[in-house]
Amino acid sequence: MSITIDRIRSGRDSVLPPAGAPRDLAMAQLANSVGDGAFIVTSALFFTRLVGLSTAQVGLGLTVAWLVGFLVGVPLGNLADRKGARGVAVVLALTTAASVGSFTVVRSFPLFLIAAIVYASSQTGLTAARQALLAGLVDPAERTRIRAFLQSTVNAGLAVGAALGGIALHYDTATAYLTVFALDALSFLIAARLLHRVPRIAVSTRVKGEPRLAVLHDRPYAVLALLNAIMLLFMPLLSLVAPLWIVTRTDAPDWVVASLLIVNTIGVTLFQVRAARSVRDLRTATRSVRYAGVAMLAACAVFAISAFDMGATTAAVVLISGAALLTLGEMKLASGAWEISFGLAPADKQGQYQGFFGTGPAIARMLGPALLTTVVLGWGPIGWIAVGAVFLGTSCATGPAVRWAARTRAVNEDALPSLVEENAA
Fold first, then answer.
1. Mind listing the domains of the chain with CATH numbers?
2. What is the pLDDT of residues 169-196, one digit of tens each?
3. Which residues of 306-343 are buried (b: 16+ CB within 10 A; e: fewer)?
4. Long-range CB contacts (< 8 A, 24+ apart) of 410-419?
5. Closest by alpha carbon to 231, among 326, 153, 147?
6. Where in this chain does the entry annotate a coiled-coil region (predicted)?
7. In this predicted model, what pLDDT tens digit does every residue of 137-162 receive, in sequence order?
């Protein structure tokens, strides 16, 4: 079943995506992103103060859990292709809710590790299944725009969840933390109910002799997933590297740390849909990714400048400008990456392909903190410029990689001539 272009365009100027499957998907995203926001803010103190774990145990447990989640993303995406994306998404939303609920009662490291692995694996698989649902329910020409609506919804939900988590941190009681985790579990139950409302999509059947996980044999797509993972190294910049940079290398007041995240959250919530409007095919997608590379290089250069003596107010303005540029880069990257990941994936294998492409955030979260803190805090302003140059170079490499991938498969007929034109130019 596919949502027609005319029906989707009728909601072009709406804050929410059109009624029907796109809106149900968005509301499901909103529900579980509220839970995610609360979890992110409170999880560290919850696990150390209520569960009774050491910070080293929490760090080890979550690292192992997300590593397992990274490994099972493709198999769970393949399961969505073979058994039905809607059913798999509903089950994984329920297992996420169960794992969050179990956190409230586990009081030992082994049980915590099991719950964390179920949580991370369910989250990774749920992302792949939802992407497969989107690919099956929305016309290809409108997938990126609807995905932009979902991303805006995610950021709005994270902001609400973070606020709820902040209230729990303010009271700092067992009851407050347990209430937040209960709400987190409830949010995934609500998401499961909303996902169950969307129509079923066709399941695929593996052809005899075809690899079980075909995406692992698709070298051009693997290169594009790697390039996307490198671009996603921007993620730890605002959440980890920039805060450390602000307090150790600049004259800016400490409140600027929070303002950077506020700029990012509000920016994506309000402008992601608009940023995605220019992406219509693979050619415009590669252009959007290049634009992202330029914006990220500019952002890194601005952050580098903030190290110079300029006074607290000026430093704050400079840093907030850097955050705005990085947010622009994030939105342009996301818009291009969605179109590329959908457009180059076989229609009957969207689950496993989206599961593979979706490993980028996990890679960025695992490798980014150590790598970026070493380069930026160790090298100073030159480190920022080096990181920005990597973003620009990677974004420029995306175009040739997309053309390579397009030559190895049948792509949208509107996209392939565009790529030829770009190559000729």
1. 11-197 (1.20.1250.20), 217-424 (1.20.1250.20)
2. 888 899 999 999 999 999 999 999 999 9
3. bbeebeeeebbebbbbbbbbbbbbbbbbbbbbbbbbbb
4. 411/282, 411/343, 411/344, 412/140, 412/281, 412/282, 412/343, 414/141, 414/280, 414/281, 415/281, 415/282, 415/283, 415/343, 416/282, 418/281, 418/282, 418/283, 418/284, 419/282, 419/283
5. 326
6. none
7. 988 888 899 999 999 999 889 889 98
